[in-house]
Prior knowledge:
By secondary structure, the protein is of the alpha/beta class.
Amino acid sequence: MKYTRLGNSGLRVSRLCLGTMNIGSKDWKPWIFDETESEPLIGHALDSGINFIDLADFYSAGEGEAVVGNILSRLGRRDELILTTKLGYQIGQDVNSYGTSRKHIFDAINGSLRRLKMEYVDIYMLHYFDTETPVEETMEALNDVVRSGKARYIGMSTMYTWQFAKILNVCEKYGWTKPINMQLQLNCAYREEEREMIPYCMDQGIGVSAFSPLARGILANEPHSKRNKTDFFTTQMYSDRCSYDIACSVQRVAEAKGITAPQVAQAWVLRKPEISSMLVGADSVAQLDTAIAALDTELDEEDLHEIDRHYTPCDLINDYTSERRIPRSARPARGKYAEPVETAA
Protein backbone atom coordinates (compact mmCIF):
# COMPACT_ATOMS: atom_id res chain seq x y z
CA MET A 1 0.00 0.00 0.00
CA LYS A 2 1.07 3.57 -0.65
CA TYR A 3 0.49 6.44 1.78
CA THR A 4 0.39 10.22 1.53
CA ARG A 5 -0.21 13.23 3.75
CA LEU A 6 -3.70 14.65 3.47
CA GLY A 7 -3.11 18.14 2.13
CA ASN A 8 -0.93 20.31 4.35
CA SER A 9 -1.89 18.37 7.46
CA GLY A 10 0.42 15.88 9.14
CA LEU A 11 -2.16 13.09 8.76
CA ARG A 12 -0.98 10.14 6.66
CA VAL A 13 -3.63 8.15 4.83
CA SER A 14 -3.57 5.23 2.42
CA ARG A 15 -4.02 6.14 -1.24
CA LEU A 16 -7.05 3.86 -1.19
CA CYS A 17 -9.94 4.65 1.15
CA LEU A 18 -12.55 2.00 1.92
CA GLY A 19 -16.00 3.38 1.09
CA THR A 20 -18.82 1.92 3.18
CA MET A 21 -22.04 3.06 1.54
CA ASN A 22 -22.66 -0.60 0.63
CA ILE A 23 -22.32 -1.76 4.26
CA GLY A 24 -25.19 -1.78 6.74
CA SER A 25 -28.76 -3.02 6.36
CA LYS A 26 -30.62 -4.44 3.36
CA ASP A 27 -33.73 -2.72 4.74
CA TRP A 28 -32.20 0.52 3.44
CA LYS A 29 -31.23 -0.67 -0.07
CA PRO A 30 -31.33 -4.20 -1.54
CA TRP A 31 -27.66 -4.08 -2.59
CA ILE A 32 -26.33 -3.40 0.93
CA PHE A 33 -24.03 -5.97 2.62
CA ASP A 34 -24.89 -7.00 6.16
CA GLU A 35 -22.36 -7.50 8.96
CA THR A 36 -21.52 -11.10 8.07
CA GLU A 37 -20.98 -10.25 4.41
CA SER A 38 -18.99 -7.11 5.22
CA GLU A 39 -16.41 -8.46 7.67
CA PRO A 40 -14.26 -10.28 5.05
CA LEU A 41 -14.14 -7.10 2.95
CA ILE A 42 -13.07 -4.89 5.85
CA GLY A 43 -10.60 -7.49 7.06
CA HIS A 44 -8.99 -7.79 3.63
CA ALA A 45 -8.79 -4.01 3.29
CA LEU A 46 -6.96 -3.72 6.60
CA ASP A 47 -4.67 -6.65 5.81
CA SER A 48 -3.81 -4.93 2.52
CA GLY A 49 -2.67 -1.80 4.35
CA ILE A 50 -5.73 0.41 3.87
CA ASN A 51 -5.94 2.63 6.96
CA PHE A 52 -8.55 5.11 5.66
CA ILE A 53 -12.28 4.26 6.08
CA ASP A 54 -15.13 6.54 5.02
CA LEU A 55 -18.59 6.42 6.60
CA ALA A 56 -21.68 8.61 6.96
CA ASP A 57 -24.56 8.60 9.41
CA PHE A 58 -26.87 8.63 6.38
CA TYR A 59 -25.71 5.19 5.18
CA SER A 60 -28.37 2.64 6.13
CA ALA A 61 -29.84 5.33 8.40
CA GLY A 62 -27.03 4.84 10.92
CA GLU A 63 -26.81 1.08 10.69
CA GLY A 64 -23.73 1.35 8.48
CA GLU A 65 -21.77 2.99 11.29
CA ALA A 66 -22.97 0.36 13.76
CA VAL A 67 -21.93 -2.52 11.51
CA VAL A 68 -18.49 -1.08 10.77
CA GLY A 69 -17.99 -0.26 14.46
CA ASN A 70 -18.85 -3.83 15.46
CA ILE A 71 -16.44 -5.31 12.92
CA LEU A 72 -13.59 -2.98 13.85
CA SER A 73 -14.06 -3.75 17.55
CA ARG A 74 -13.42 -7.43 16.76
CA LEU A 75 -10.44 -6.68 14.52
CA GLY A 76 -9.02 -4.39 17.21
CA ARG A 77 -7.02 -1.85 15.19
CA ARG A 78 -8.68 1.48 16.06
CA ASP A 79 -5.48 3.42 16.83
CA GLU A 80 -4.02 2.46 13.44
CA LEU A 81 -7.03 3.69 11.47
CA ILE A 82 -8.20 6.99 10.03
CA LEU A 83 -11.98 6.97 10.35
CA THR A 84 -14.16 9.63 8.80
CA THR A 85 -17.91 10.01 9.01
CA LYS A 86 -20.25 12.59 7.53
CA LEU A 87 -23.37 14.44 8.63
CA GLY A 88 -26.06 16.51 6.98
CA TYR A 89 -28.61 14.27 5.30
CA GLN A 90 -31.76 13.42 7.22
CA ILE A 91 -31.68 10.20 9.23
CA GLY A 92 -34.63 10.79 11.57
CA GLN A 93 -38.16 12.19 11.52
CA ASP A 94 -37.56 15.29 13.64
CA VAL A 95 -37.43 18.69 11.92
CA ASN A 96 -33.90 19.17 13.26
CA SER A 97 -32.60 15.75 12.22
CA TYR A 98 -30.78 17.07 9.16
CA GLY A 99 -28.70 20.04 8.07
CA THR A 100 -25.71 21.60 9.80
CA SER A 101 -27.20 23.63 12.64
CA ARG A 102 -25.31 23.65 15.93
CA LYS A 103 -27.99 21.46 17.47
CA HIS A 104 -27.85 18.85 14.73
CA ILE A 105 -24.05 18.80 14.56
CA PHE A 106 -23.77 17.89 18.25
CA ASP A 107 -26.67 15.44 18.08
CA ALA A 108 -25.11 13.86 14.98
CA ILE A 109 -21.57 13.47 16.32
CA ASN A 110 -22.89 11.97 19.56
CA GLY A 111 -25.08 9.58 17.58
CA SER A 112 -22.24 8.51 15.31
CA LEU A 113 -19.87 7.87 18.22
CA ARG A 114 -22.56 5.90 20.04
CA ARG A 115 -23.18 3.68 17.03
CA LEU A 116 -19.46 3.26 16.31
CA LYS A 117 -18.78 2.59 20.02
CA MET A 118 -15.81 4.95 19.80
CA GLU A 119 -14.65 8.07 21.61
CA TYR A 120 -13.69 10.04 18.52
CA VAL A 121 -13.55 10.06 14.71
CA ASP A 122 -10.45 11.23 12.91
CA ILE A 123 -12.21 13.43 10.35
CA TYR A 124 -15.75 14.76 10.78
CA MET A 125 -17.19 15.90 7.45
CA LEU A 126 -20.11 17.86 6.10
CA HIS A 127 -21.96 15.76 3.52
CA TYR A 128 -22.98 18.95 1.70
CA PHE A 129 -23.20 22.73 2.18
CA ASP A 130 -26.35 23.65 4.08
CA THR A 131 -27.68 26.83 2.47
CA GLU A 132 -30.27 27.31 5.24
CA THR A 133 -27.81 27.59 8.15
CA PRO A 134 -25.36 30.49 8.61
CA VAL A 135 -21.88 29.25 7.78
CA GLU A 136 -20.59 30.88 10.98
CA GLU A 137 -22.92 28.73 13.08
CA THR A 138 -21.82 25.56 11.30
CA MET A 139 -18.09 26.18 11.44
CA GLU A 140 -18.07 27.36 15.06
CA ALA A 141 -19.90 24.16 16.03
CA LEU A 142 -17.42 22.00 14.09
CA ASN A 143 -14.56 23.89 15.75
CA ASP A 144 -16.10 23.06 19.13
CA VAL A 145 -16.45 19.40 18.15
CA VAL A 146 -12.70 19.29 17.49
CA ARG A 147 -11.92 21.16 20.72
CA SER A 148 -14.06 18.67 22.64
CA GLY A 149 -11.94 15.79 21.34
CA LYS A 150 -14.79 14.10 19.52
CA ALA A 151 -13.05 14.67 16.17
CA ARG A 152 -9.38 15.23 15.36
CA TYR A 153 -9.95 17.07 12.05
CA ILE A 154 -12.82 18.26 9.87
CA GLY A 155 -13.52 17.85 6.16
CA MET A 156 -16.05 18.71 3.49
CA SER A 157 -17.84 16.92 0.67
CA THR A 158 -19.48 17.85 -2.62
CA MET A 159 -20.32 21.56 -2.95
CA TYR A 160 -19.62 24.57 -5.13
CA THR A 161 -16.12 26.05 -4.97
CA TRP A 162 -17.47 29.43 -3.83
CA GLN A 163 -19.18 27.70 -0.90
CA PHE A 164 -15.94 26.03 0.13
CA ALA A 165 -14.14 29.37 -0.16
CA LYS A 166 -16.75 30.89 2.14
CA ILE A 167 -16.05 28.16 4.70
CA LEU A 168 -12.29 28.70 4.59
CA ASN A 169 -12.70 32.49 4.85
CA VAL A 170 -14.88 32.19 7.95
CA CYS A 171 -12.40 29.80 9.58
CA GLU A 172 -9.55 32.21 8.81
CA LYS A 173 -11.48 35.19 10.15
CA TYR A 174 -12.31 33.62 13.51
CA GLY A 175 -9.32 31.35 13.96
CA TRP A 176 -11.43 28.20 13.83
CA THR A 177 -10.28 24.74 12.77
CA LYS A 178 -9.94 24.55 8.98
CA PRO A 179 -10.92 21.55 6.84
CA ILE A 180 -8.08 19.31 5.69
CA ASN A 181 -10.03 17.25 3.15
CA MET A 182 -12.47 17.77 0.27
CA GLN A 183 -14.29 14.64 -0.88
CA LEU A 184 -15.61 14.93 -4.42
CA GLN A 185 -16.76 12.89 -7.39
CA LEU A 186 -14.16 12.30 -10.10
CA ASN A 187 -13.84 9.72 -12.86
CA CYS A 188 -13.28 9.43 -16.61
CA ALA A 189 -16.92 10.33 -17.27
CA TYR A 190 -17.19 13.23 -14.80
CA ARG A 191 -14.33 15.73 -14.60
CA GLU A 192 -15.99 19.06 -13.86
CA GLU A 193 -14.26 19.39 -10.46
CA GLU A 194 -10.97 19.75 -12.34
CA ARG A 195 -12.05 23.25 -13.42
CA GLU A 196 -12.26 25.04 -10.06
CA MET A 197 -12.55 22.86 -6.97
CA ILE A 198 -9.40 20.76 -7.37
CA PRO A 199 -7.14 23.72 -8.33
CA TYR A 200 -8.59 25.67 -5.39
CA CYS A 201 -7.85 22.79 -3.01
CA MET A 202 -4.27 22.63 -4.31
CA ASP A 203 -3.86 26.36 -3.77
CA GLN A 204 -5.22 26.14 -0.21
CA GLY A 205 -3.35 22.98 0.80
CA ILE A 206 -6.48 20.83 1.09
CA GLY A 207 -6.28 17.08 0.53
CA VAL A 208 -8.65 15.68 -2.12
CA SER A 209 -10.30 12.27 -1.87
CA ALA A 210 -12.21 11.10 -4.94
CA PHE A 211 -15.31 8.92 -4.86
CA SER A 212 -17.13 6.99 -7.60
CA PRO A 213 -14.03 6.24 -9.73
CA LEU A 214 -16.13 3.74 -11.70
CA ALA A 215 -19.02 6.17 -12.27
CA ARG A 216 -21.36 3.99 -10.22
CA GLY A 217 -20.32 0.92 -12.21
CA ILE A 218 -20.78 2.34 -15.70
CA LEU A 219 -17.02 2.30 -16.33
CA ALA A 220 -16.87 -1.28 -15.06
CA ASN A 221 -19.50 -2.37 -17.61
CA GLU A 222 -22.06 -2.99 -14.87
CA PRO A 223 -25.02 -0.85 -15.94
CA HIS A 224 -27.48 -3.61 -15.07
CA SER A 225 -26.20 -4.48 -11.59
CA LYS A 226 -28.70 -4.75 -8.75
CA ARG A 227 -27.51 -1.37 -7.46
CA ASN A 228 -27.90 0.38 -10.78
CA LYS A 229 -31.35 -1.10 -11.32
CA THR A 230 -32.52 0.22 -7.93
CA ASP A 231 -30.56 3.48 -7.66
CA PHE A 232 -32.00 6.33 -9.73
CA PHE A 233 -28.82 8.41 -9.22
CA THR A 234 -26.97 6.28 -11.78
CA THR A 235 -29.50 7.07 -14.50
CA GLN A 236 -29.53 10.73 -13.57
CA MET A 237 -25.74 11.07 -13.64
CA TYR A 238 -24.49 8.68 -16.31
CA SER A 239 -27.24 7.78 -18.76
CA ASP A 240 -25.98 9.94 -21.64
CA ARG A 241 -24.19 8.93 -24.82
CA CYS A 242 -20.96 10.59 -23.70
CA SER A 243 -20.70 8.33 -20.64
CA TYR A 244 -21.38 5.27 -22.80
CA ASP A 245 -18.67 6.23 -25.30
CA ILE A 246 -16.15 6.79 -22.50
CA ALA A 247 -17.01 3.42 -20.99
CA CYS A 248 -16.38 1.80 -24.37
CA SER A 249 -12.99 3.48 -24.60
CA VAL A 250 -12.05 2.32 -21.10
CA GLN A 251 -12.92 -1.22 -22.15
CA ARG A 252 -10.88 -0.81 -25.32
CA VAL A 253 -7.81 0.28 -23.33
CA ALA A 254 -8.32 -2.57 -20.86
CA GLU A 255 -8.38 -5.13 -23.68
CA ALA A 256 -5.22 -3.66 -25.20
CA LYS A 257 -3.41 -3.87 -21.87
CA GLY A 258 -4.78 -7.28 -20.91
CA ILE A 259 -6.43 -6.04 -17.70
CA THR A 260 -9.96 -5.21 -16.57
CA ALA A 261 -11.93 -2.04 -17.23
CA PRO A 262 -12.24 -1.21 -13.50
CA GLN A 263 -8.46 -1.34 -13.14
CA VAL A 264 -8.04 1.10 -16.03
CA ALA A 265 -10.70 3.50 -14.71
CA GLN A 266 -9.21 3.48 -11.22
CA ALA A 267 -5.66 3.92 -12.53
CA TRP A 268 -6.90 6.99 -14.43
CA VAL A 269 -7.92 8.58 -11.11
CA LEU A 270 -4.91 7.43 -9.10
CA ARG A 271 -2.38 8.77 -11.62
CA LYS A 272 -3.47 12.33 -10.84
CA PRO A 273 -1.08 13.93 -8.32
CA GLU A 274 -3.88 16.17 -7.03
CA ILE A 275 -5.76 13.16 -5.66
CA SER A 276 -4.65 12.17 -2.17
CA SER A 277 -6.86 9.10 -1.87
CA MET A 278 -9.45 7.25 -3.96
CA LEU A 279 -12.53 5.71 -2.39
CA VAL A 280 -13.23 2.06 -3.16
CA GLY A 281 -16.71 0.66 -2.53
CA ALA A 282 -15.95 -3.00 -3.13
CA ASP A 283 -18.46 -5.85 -3.24
CA SER A 284 -15.74 -8.53 -3.12
CA VAL A 285 -12.15 -9.17 -2.14
CA ALA A 286 -11.33 -9.41 -5.85
CA GLN A 287 -12.60 -5.88 -6.42
CA LEU A 288 -10.36 -4.61 -3.63
CA ASP A 289 -7.41 -6.37 -5.23
CA THR A 290 -8.22 -4.71 -8.55
CA ALA A 291 -8.05 -1.28 -6.91
CA ILE A 292 -4.75 -2.18 -5.27
CA ALA A 293 -3.37 -3.28 -8.65
CA ALA A 294 -4.49 0.04 -10.12
CA LEU A 295 -2.00 1.83 -7.84
CA ASP A 296 0.83 0.53 -10.03
CA THR A 297 -0.97 0.51 -13.38
CA GLU A 298 0.57 2.86 -15.92
CA LEU A 299 -1.38 4.54 -18.70
CA ASP A 300 0.58 5.91 -21.65
CA GLU A 301 -0.33 8.91 -23.80
CA GLU A 302 -2.25 6.80 -26.31
CA ASP A 303 -4.25 5.16 -23.52
CA LEU A 304 -5.11 8.55 -22.05
CA HIS A 305 -6.10 10.02 -25.40
CA GLU A 306 -8.44 7.12 -26.07
CA ILE A 307 -10.11 7.59 -22.68
CA ASP A 308 -10.25 11.39 -22.79
CA ARG A 309 -11.27 12.02 -26.40
CA HIS A 310 -15.00 11.62 -25.80
CA TYR A 311 -15.27 13.84 -22.76
CA THR A 312 -17.80 16.66 -23.03
CA PRO A 313 -18.31 19.31 -20.33
CA CYS A 314 -21.49 19.07 -18.30
CA ASP A 315 -23.16 20.74 -15.34
CA LEU A 316 -21.97 19.94 -11.84
CA ILE A 317 -23.21 16.92 -9.90
CA ASN A 318 -24.24 17.99 -6.41
CA ASP A 319 -27.26 18.36 -4.14
CA TYR A 320 -28.26 21.62 -5.76
CA THR A 321 -28.58 20.17 -9.27
CA SER A 322 -30.28 16.93 -8.22
CA GLU A 323 -33.10 15.92 -10.60
CA ARG A 324 -32.42 19.05 -12.69
CA ARG A 325 -29.25 18.11 -14.53
CA ILE A 326 -29.09 18.53 -18.30
CA PRO A 327 -27.97 15.40 -20.21
CA ARG A 328 -24.97 15.76 -22.50
CA SER A 329 -26.99 15.40 -25.69
CA ALA A 330 -28.78 17.82 -27.97
CA ARG A 331 -32.19 18.96 -26.80
CA PRO A 332 -35.08 19.10 -29.31
CA ALA A 333 -35.56 22.45 -31.03
CA ARG A 334 -38.54 24.53 -29.89
CA GLY A 335 -40.90 27.04 -31.38
CA LYS A 336 -39.94 28.54 -34.73
CA TYR A 337 -36.72 26.51 -34.76
CA ALA A 338 -38.46 23.15 -34.45
CA GLU A 339 -38.30 20.83 -37.44
CA PRO A 340 -41.60 20.85 -39.35
CA VAL A 341 -43.60 17.67 -39.01
CA GLU A 342 -44.21 15.98 -42.35
CA THR A 343 -47.82 15.11 -43.06
CA ALA A 344 -49.22 12.61 -45.51
CA ALA A 345 -50.33 14.05 -48.84
